[in-house]
Design a protein that fits this description.
Order of helices and strands: HEHEHEHEEHH
Number of helices: 6
CATH architecture of the largest domain: 2-Layer Sandwich
Distance between the termini: 204 Å
Radius of gyration: 60 Å
CATH class of the largest domain: Alpha Beta
Number of strands: 5
Shape: elongated
Oligomer: single chain
Number of domains: 2
Strand content: 5-15%
CATH superfamily of the largest domain: Ribosomal protein L10, N-terminal RNA-binding domain
Helix content: 55-70%
């Protein structure tokens, strides 16, 4: 390969990796063409790109960048994986395919770089256990909403207890109120019954008094009539005696 062609490849790598700050180096030697195509397809679905590079060329391409420490001490041909939603998601996908020995037996993580720090294969495996950005956001939201949920539950519990106590108080007062109402009704009915009884007695006494009055008048009239009759008889007898 001519020097000019090598420079073109180096410039192309430098352009592709511009702006990339984190990556994972993997071995793809030994994968068949079909396995390589399938691997690229699955990684592309996660917005992860993979680029096979020669170590000597890529070192010139990333010289002076944060990716340079990842290639120190590397030999031969490697593949650079980068992209994804976040670096943890990238590492998780690489680690998942590495464990799929049935389809990608030769696919093995060789190292990487994160925040300018070189990662060993063991460190890459450890990072794969971290929560991804989406999982971290979910945990953070849960932590933020946790106190609010607790406070809401306490407020609802207090309100429910207060409502139960109010209902209990209302329930305990109801019988007493009913008894008081019954007593008031009974007291209101009693005078009415007494008045009705008094009216009945008065009506019963009125005819008796009228009859007694009539009898008294009759008795008073009877002597008067007898006296008038006696006087008439006496007057009739007097002329006869004179004659």
């Amino acid at each position: 390969m001519s020097k000019y062609l090598k420079q073109l490849i180096t410039d192309q790598l430098s352009s592709e990796l511009e702006g990339v700050t984190e990556c994972v180096l993997v071995n793809v030697i030994g994968l068949s063409a079909n396995e390589t195509v399938d691997l690229r397809k699955q990684l592309r679905e996660k917005d992860i790109r993979i680029r096979v590079v020669k170590n000597s060329m890529v070192m010139r391409a990333v010289e002076g960048t944060v990716l340079a420490p990842a290639f120190e001490g590397a030999n031969g041909t490697l593949a650079v994986c980068y992209g994804g939603e976040d670096f943890v998601t990238l590492v998780k996908e690489v680690h998942r395919h590495q464990k799929d020995e049935d389809n990608f037996e030769q696919f093995v993580a060789k190292g990487g770089v994160m925040d300018g720090e070189t990662l060993t294969p063991e460190m890459v495996a450890e990072v794969s256990k971290w929560p991804s950005r989406e999982e971290q956001l979910s945990i953070l939201v849960g932590q933020l909403l946790g106190p609010g949920r607790t406070l809401l539950a306490q407020l609802e519990s207090g309100g429910a207890n207060l409502a139960a106590q109010i209902d209990q108080i209302d329930g305990s007062n109801s019988p007493a109120e009913e008894e008081a109402s019954d007593e008031s009704d009974a007291e209101a009915e009693a005078p009415a019954e007494e008045e009705a009884s008094d009216e009945s007695d008065a009506e019963a006494e009125a005819p008796a008094e009228e009859e007694a009055s009539d009898e008294s008048d009759a008795e008073a009239e009877a002597p008067a009539e007898e006296e008038a009759s006696d006087e008439s008889d006496a007057e009739a007898e007097a002329p006869a005696e004179e004659e």
